[in-house]
Design goal:
CATH architecture of the largest domain: Orthogonal Bundle
Oligomer: single chain
Largest sheet: none
Number of strands: 0
Number of helices: 4
Distance between the termini: 75 Å
Amino acid sequence: MGRRGRYSKEFKLEAVRLLNLGEKPASDLAMELGIKRTLLYRWKDQIAKSGESAFSGPGRPKNNELSELPLLKKENAILREERDILKKAAAYFARDLR
């Protein structure tokens, strides 16, 4: 199995530009560039969706960033529940003072 390649933004934009010219079939162009044909089409879709801002980031977030999000969501849900309970309790005790 081959190593996953990293390609510069300029390389991707140029590859999609050549694909859009239509002078060569996508399979031939991909072979010349040393990439898979499906990768060319994926880059083309990304440019269609995001325009020039495509390929701006380093890719998928690191594992520690991925694992932190569910924990924060769970903590947020617990804090919201506690807040709602305290609101109801405050309203109940305020009613007795009147």
